[in-house]
């Protein structure tokens, strides 16, 4: 056999021609008694959550009543998840937390100190001193 | 007999030799034949092997970004009126280039020549960090927690029309 | 020892007498499907008598998981939720229709569009690499990854657990169902440790690659969703779905080659292509043999044509890189049509054969 192959998997590029929202499930956990759940109780009573859920049909919204501080837990693609504490937050702040986290990919937060992240090879290639024409080379 | 066709050495991590040739729209070229040929990007098309090997420099809030298809652009702010999944048509492109040719126009390349779109794939935040502020002649140090927004775009299409 | 051999022979002869067919490769209908037929050769009369029914659309609509998945994949309205639920069901014996047929359909469509794409875009890809490239696009591991990114959940709780947590019945119709009740119970409690069944152990290959049942199930669900799209929307929609979800991935083809004797292969290739002049490797530039980190640039030439180029820290390395570079630029050639746009695929409208055929592999 002249050439052998090396098995690889094609790299995922979510956003190139198709886009699937990474967040697929949100669990809103609240307590019916505790004062820290006041904000989320207001939110549930106001019916605002229905409009949010209707706008985001691709996400499953689950409401769970459990004792303790309220929290939002998000489930993302590739078994990633995130929990956000919403104790003592008011209605609008909870909505903002919800909208922000639904739009993230669930991967760990990081700072990228460059403008572009690329998995492609450079189109122009890299400059090489060995390819400069003879008369322009650096001479000692 | 098959002709051995080389798709360009760049693909195989080989540095380029010499300067690349430029096609540019300059005011001094007045004859019609020349202006016609400047809008004909077939050289760029063939050299990029059917838009496979193409880069573009677009500007967003006047900041240039050099991208190829499938790149992620990290914007250190929350893009206004954009949500995850939105498609953006980037229409301020100053340069399009292939391994050997460049077409550039500082005023912006005509939109009917290319197709450059991006998708908002993620609106997230940077990791939390603290900023310390001091005032002169005062020993007190104020600490501010910062967690700025980040918008991530994916270049979903880059091709010559 | 001798006696044991005799015994084996005896057992062998018994087997031969009872089931002579077992010594040939014969495909038999799955007994669990209770297939009946008028005559064994009349394939039209084949009928499965196992009782199955499709999930009513009204039940499927109640499952939020199904509605969300439908919307996440932006499937057309005609794609019914009951088909989507069927695509996620791998269990044969629960009375609900399973995804066996949809899976087969999806696999066929996938392999057609993927291989068409590879054959036209990379006509000179050697056979072993071509096969691996197809696997990279639509192998079980890739489809598993796709299934995970689509947010498909697995039904892991037993009936008892569901009853205790008062989970509504229709929730499970939106989940991937491949574990039967006994498998759910035997789930090990230790994280990261899995107990393999006899069936799974047999799937462990010689090269120690092992595909979990979960991966297989995810892959089958992804294929079935594609098959379902074909049944509801037809070929055009399926093609664009495959192009946008599977062929939009980046294939690292340049990392998939492994050459054992590259120089010899290049020489054979040149012979095959009837090059007029012999292939030569020449030194293009160097930093100097006595420099602290010597670098050499070598090129593979045929007469005055440069076929490839490589940089290395020894002459041998530079030479090998140059040769591999030349081979890669030959194998990874991708044609363009006359107007500079990518070539059309056979499944496109007004496709015209543009005369690019790979010359086949070379033997060393």
TrEMBL record, chain A:
Top-rank lineage group of the source organism: Eukaryota
Entries under SMART domains matching the protein: L51_S25_CI-B8 (SM00916)
Protein's cellular compartments: Mitochondrion
InterPro entries on file: MethylDNA_cys_MeTrfase_AS (IPR001497), Ribosomal_mL43 (IPR039927), Ribosomal_mL43/mS25/NADH_DH (IPR007741), Thioredoxin-like_sf (IPR036249)
Protein name: Large ribosomal subunit protein mL43
Keywords (A to Z) from UniProt: Mitochondrion, Ribonucleoprotein, Ribosomal protein
Keyword match Signal: no
Chain segments annotated as coiled-coil in the UniProt record: none
GO molecular function, one term: methylated-DNA-[protein]-cysteine S-methyltransferase activity
Main location: mitochondrion
Provenance organism: Pichia sorbitophila (strain ATCC MYA-4447 / BCRC 22081 / CBS 7064 / NBRC 10061 / NRRL Y-12695) (Hybrid yeast)
One Pfam family from the record: L51_S25_CI-B8
Domain Ribosomal protein/NADH dehydrogenase, residue spans: 32-105
Gene Ontology terms: cellular component: mitochondrial large ribosomal subunit
Family: Belongs to the mitochondrion-specific ribosomal protein mL43 family.
The gene coding this protein: Piso0_002798
One GO term of the biological process aspect: mitochondrial translation
Keyword check for Ribosomal protein: yes
TrEMBL record, chain B:
Pfam families membership: Ribosomal_L21p (PF00829)
Molecular-function annotations in GO: structural constituent of ribosome
InterPro entries, per database record: bL21-like, bL21-like_sf
Xref: SUPFAM superfamilies: L21p-like (SSF141091)
A GO cellular component annotation in the UniProt record: mitochondrial large ribosomal subunit
Protein family according to the UniProt entry: Belongs to the bacterial ribosomal protein bL21 family.
Protein name listed in UniProt: Large ribosomal subunit protein bL21m
Organismal lineage: Eukaryota, Fungi, Dikarya, Ascomycota, Saccharomycotina
Gene: Piso0_004702
TrEMBL record, chain C:
Gene Ontology cellular component terms for the protein in this record: mitochondrion
GO molecular function: ribonuclease III activity; RNA binding; structural constituent of ribosome
InterPro entries: Ribosomal_mL44_DSRM_metazoa (IPR044444), RNase_III_dom (IPR000999), RNase_III_sf (IPR036389)
Example GO biological process: RNA processing
Limits of the RNase III domain: 66-234
Domain of life: Eukaryota
SMART domains: RIBOc
Keyword annotations: Mitochondrion, Ribonucleoprotein, Ribosomal protein, RNA-binding
Organism: Pichia sorbitophila (strain ATCC MYA-4447 / BCRC 22081 / CBS 7064 / NBRC 10061 / NRRL Y-12695)
Subcellular location field: Mitochondrion
Name of the protein: Large ribosomal subunit protein mL44
Family: Belongs to the ribonuclease III family. Mitochondrion-specific ribosomal protein mL44 subfamily.
Main localization (coarse): mitochondrion
Methyltransferase as UniProt keyword: no
